[in-house]
Design brief:
The chain is built from 4 helices and 24 strands. By secondary structure, the protein is an alpha+beta fold. Among the domains are: 1-32; 125-242 and 253-346, YVTN repeat-like/Quinoprotein amine dehydrogenase (Methylamine Dehydrogenase, Chain H, 7 Propeller).
Length: 361
């Protein structure tokens, strides 16, 4: 009877220990997952941009449920060992495991494309594919990877490629932008901005407007177009008032690099140290600015240029932006004349926007 009582006591201790582990796991999961919802609705005289939802990617620790088995003597003498094993299991589970994906090498490309050079950027369009190399060469192929033409565009690495379907634009670390036509190989124009170009975007109606936007290490978002004389006109869209708190303080005068530029009709959005900014092309006015979060992965004052933004256009009026540990969903709508700026919680969202539930891994 004594042995059975000891065994029953040990089993009860083990079960209570399991419940303790499960409760601590649920508490740690709740504390480590940090989800935010933010809604910003900005209305301009012609357009409005709404920030529907925001999710911050937190790292959640998770402890697998384990069952402790053994004899009564093992349970009595191995309490310390079980505690050490539980700590080791928690440390192992805290380490994020990369997802298991299947990769397939593209073998249809011509072998002579990258014998002496490697890809620095690429673009997969609806009608053609483009591959830029570190030596400044641009390879254009069909969607079946059949070569169309090869162009020596720049003197150094091609950092970005953009297209509107009829024209293509490339930006390079040598500070130049090349714009060419898919139909006419001889119709190629070069623009020199003297500083590395990280991103370039053609206007949605480039054939008629001859307008494009570029930005890079200089920190300026430049809207460029040609006048009726054929001269280039540049307009800086992100001008800042220079303010100095101290004579030896130069931080307020310095602009961070432009990390990405995209167009949505007559709207331009870009990412830099100030966050995500929407600008209206006809009025040259900024509609919305979402600051970059100051805290990422429990680290304070993280530089935005350490993270590359990822942008995906769900529809013609909806765009998803993933940057750092955050995901934003924006909807652009045309409204009547109004100069009001509204900011509210999720209750102020319209019915067709409240169903967005961002997920992070």
């Amino acid at each position: 009877m004594t042995t059975d009582n000891h065994q029953n006591d040990s089993v009860l201790d083990q079960q209570s220990g399991e419940r303790t582990i499960d409760e601590s796991n649920s508490i740690s999961d709740e504390n480590n997952v940090d989800n935010k919802r933010e809604d910003v609705n900005v209305t301009s005289p012609t357009k409005s941009v709404s920030c529907i939802s925001q999710a911050e990617n937190g790292v959640a620790s998770r402890t697998d449920e384990s069952t402790i088995t053994g004899s009564a003597t093992d349970a009595e003498t191995g309490d310390d060992d079980d505690d050490d094993d539980d700590d080791d299991d928690e440390d192992e589970d805290d380490e994020d495991e990369p997802p298991l994906l299947k990769y397939t090498r593209i073998s249809q490309l011509p072998k002579n494309f990258f014998q002496r050079d490697s890809i620095s950027s690429c673009l997969f369009g609806d009608t053609f594919f483009a591959f830029g190399t570190h030596s400044g060469i641009l390879h254009l192929t069909t969607c079946a990877f059949e070569p169309i033409k090869t162009i020596k565009c720049h003197r150094s690495s091609i950092l970005c490629i953009n297209t509107d379907g009829k024209y293509f634009a490339t930006g390079s670390i040598d500070g130049t932008v090349i714009i060419g036509s898919m139909d006419d190989p001889q119709n190629i124009t070069q623009y020199d901005f003297k500083r590395p170009i990280n991103s370039v975007a053609l206007h949605s109606n480039f054939q008629a407007s001859r307008m494009f936007v570029s930005g890079g290490m200089a920190g300026d978002v430049v809207l460029s177009q040609r006048n009726w004389l054929g001269n280039r006109i540049d307009i800086v869209l992100n001008k800042k008032k220079k303010k100095k708190t101290r004579k030896d303080d130069l931080s307020s005068d310095m602009k961070g690099p432009i990390m990405g530029i995209y167009t949505m009709g007559d709207l331009i959005l870009w990412m830099d140290d100030d966050g995500i900014t929407f600008c209206d092309v006809p009025t040259r006015s900024q509609l919305l600015n979402i600051p970059f979060p100051s805290r990422i992965f429990n680290v304070q004052d993280v530089r935005p240029d350490l993270f590359r933004p990822h942008v995906h256009f769900l529809e013609s009026d909806r765009v998803v932006i993933g940057w750092g540990s955050n995901i934003w969903l924006f909807k652009v709508s045309f409204t009547k004349d109004s100069n009001s700026i509204k900011s509210g919680d999720s209750n102020s969202q319209s019915n067709n926007m409240s169903h967005f539930n961002p997920t992070t891994n």
